[in-house]
Structure formats: structure tokens, C-alpha cells
From TrEMBL:
The keyword DNA-binding applies. Residues 38-57 bind DNA. GO terms for molecular function: DNA binding. This is AcrR family transcriptional regulator. Signal peptide: none annotated.
Length: 196
């Protein structure tokens, strides 16, 4: 591919087309999951060819990474929309967003679980799917922490909450709703105690 040909992908029109293609592929992932994801499947979902996708993306893994990032952002936006008044503390934030996490669209939850599974199964190839998850979620949780906490305490508490909520969501996924809900209640109680 010549430099001039590739350079036009960065034009406003090229950038808009890339975002349009990414949205179509993201919607396909939300419906069909990551199983059998390929550049050709993505091209069919986007109504184009795999060569067009390669013009806009560095390959299947780059496209997958960007689509999963977009799905995670959708989850974050849904959670933030549930918080009427920001600044109520970490416990209040977690209590408020939990119902949106357990009630969110099944496809979104499934794809994000599959992405984490890929990161664990083949970290050399899919490490970014896991790392980017923390990079997206931790700042949101840290922002909900009390202002008086140090940055290291905010980061530590946010990491603990993220890991714990992931565990509870997995418990619910395998059918142990009662244990997950009891654990969630205990988590909120501990957070309230830490904030008082």
C-alpha cells in the first residue's frame, strides 16, 4: 500500500468512514459475540470487503480491540447515566451502578466476558483486551472515591472494587445469583465503613 493511499484514511471523510465501519462491526460483536470473529465476518457485517477494513484498521486484532473498547465504553456510559448526582462516594456509586450491570444487554456482557477470556487464554496475542479494560474502568471508580483519599488509596480501592464486581458478575453468569448478591451487599457495607 502506498503512503499516499494510506494517508487519505486520515482525512475527515476517511475518519468518518472508519467510525461508521467500526460501529457496524461493534454491533455485530454485540449480537454474535467473539466466537469465529474474523476480518471476513467483520467485512460482511459492515457491508464491505476485508480489504476496505485493512485500509482503515491495522488488521483483525486492531479492529477487535477497538470494537471491544467501544463496547466497554457503552457499559461505562450506561453506568454513569444511572448516577443521578456524582460525588456521593464510592459505596453510593457502586450501589447505584450495580443494577445497570446486572440488567445490561446480554450480548454486551457476553462479549466483554469473552474478551477477558481471550486475554487470559492467549495473553501474548490479546493482552490489550484485558489491560484496556482496567484502563477504562479504573479512572471512573477512582473519580467516585472520597476527595480526601490519597491517589494510591483511590487506585487500590478502585482495583479491588473492579476485581470484586467482575467476580460477582461471573458468579451470576454461572447461575449463583444468591451468593453474588450477598457478596455485593457485603462489599457495599465494607465500602461505607471505609468511607466513614
Amino acid at each position: 500500500m502506498t503512503a499516499g493511499y494510506r494517508r487519505s484514511a486520515g482525512s475527515p471523510r476517511g475518519a468518518a468512514r472508519k467510525q461508521e465501519l467500526l460501529e457496524l462491526v461493534t454491533e455485530d460483536l454485540a449480537v454474535n459475540g467473539l466466537v469465529d470473529f474474523s476480518l471476513r465476518r467483520a467485512a460482511r457485517a459492515a457491508g464491505t470487503t476485508h480489504k476496505v477494513l485493512l485500509y482503515h484498521f491495522e488488521g483483525a486484532e486492531d479492529l477487535l480491540r477497538q470494537a471491544v473498547f467501544r463496547l466497554r465504553q457503552r457499559r461505562i456510559d450506561n453506568a454513569l447515566a444511572a448516577v443521578a448526582v456524582p460525588g456521593g462516594g464510592l459505596a453510593a456509586f457502586v450501589r447505584t451502578v450495580w443494577p445497570t450491570l446486572v440488567a445490561e444487554e446480554t450480548g454486551l456482557q457476553r462479549v466483554l466476558d469473552q474478551a477477558m477470556g481471550l486475554a487470559m487464554h492467549d495473553p501474548d496475542r490479546h493482552r490489550d483486551l484485558g489491560r484496556e479494560a482496567s484502563g477504562q474502568y479504573l479512572p471512573v471508580l477512582m473519580a467516585a472515591c472520597p476527595a480526601g483519599w490519597s491517589e494510591s488509596r483511590k487506585r487500590g480501592m478502585a482495583a479491588m472494587v473492579l476485581a470484586t464486581l467482575r467476580g460477582f458478575l461471573l458468579e451470576r453468569l454461572v447461575g449463583d445469583v444468591t451468593s453474588a448478591d450477598a457478596g455485593f451487599d457485603a462489599l457495599v457495607t465494607l465500602l461505607e465503613a471505609a468511607e466513614s
